[in-house]
Amino acid sequence: MKQGYSKPKALLFDVFGTLVDWRGSLIRQLRAFGEARGLDQVDWPGLADAWRGRYAPSMDEVRSGRRAWTVLDDLHRESLLALLPKFGLEQRLEEEEIEGLVRGWHRLDPWPDVSGGLARLHERFLLAPLSNGNVALMANLKRHAKLPWDCILGAELARHYKPDPEVYLTAMALLRLAPQEVMMVAAHNDDLAQAQALGMQTAFVPRPTEHGPNQTTDLAADGAWDFVVASTEELADRLCDNGEVDLLRG
């Protein structure tokens, strides 16, 4: 073990993209919905991508103070309603169907390595999400994807969206842990950059197909993160061993 290094007491995880395949899950759900409703000609992958494309801009309205605090479920709903005309659906969906599609974000499937990796990490560390998803969304996602959380942390408790520092600081305060006792695990370099700036430990888990086959961002680590691993299973290998920890940098 490198001199001065101490393993964390808690691991906080980004969720969308890092632990669950939001794109593949949404496309599967949307296609199934379209088949059931006879809407086979709709560009469902395009709708999934456009929906996610409004994710950051909708939160930026809250981050900037241009609008009051609004939970992600409501932002997702507004974004979907704005997109329906573009995909020829504005007059074709009932209110309960729209609500069902929004709830699809509560039923995202995990990446293949997540179940085994988190189960092993849970034996040694306190685990929690640190997501922009609201508490109800995270609670339902925990049950659907069988994520072994000890508690639910994230944006709604801080009333800020990542990467605002308040999200990370609120989580650490609630856990009563110092930054160096907490590790942020994410597939997004900007998430880790904010965590590291606040003194947290960091681990990068790339998800090169999060945004589909033509993804151009977050394909590799672009910072000096404490760990760079290929999967949550590899992170468990590195953190749960009984020997020395060989930290990867960059």
UniProtKB/TrEMBL annotation:
Keywords, A to Z, come to:
Hydrolase
User: Which CDD domains has this protein been placed in?
Assistant: HAD_L2-DEX
Mind telling me which Pfam families this protein's record contains? Hydrolase
> What is the protein name for this chain?
Haloacid dehalogenase type II
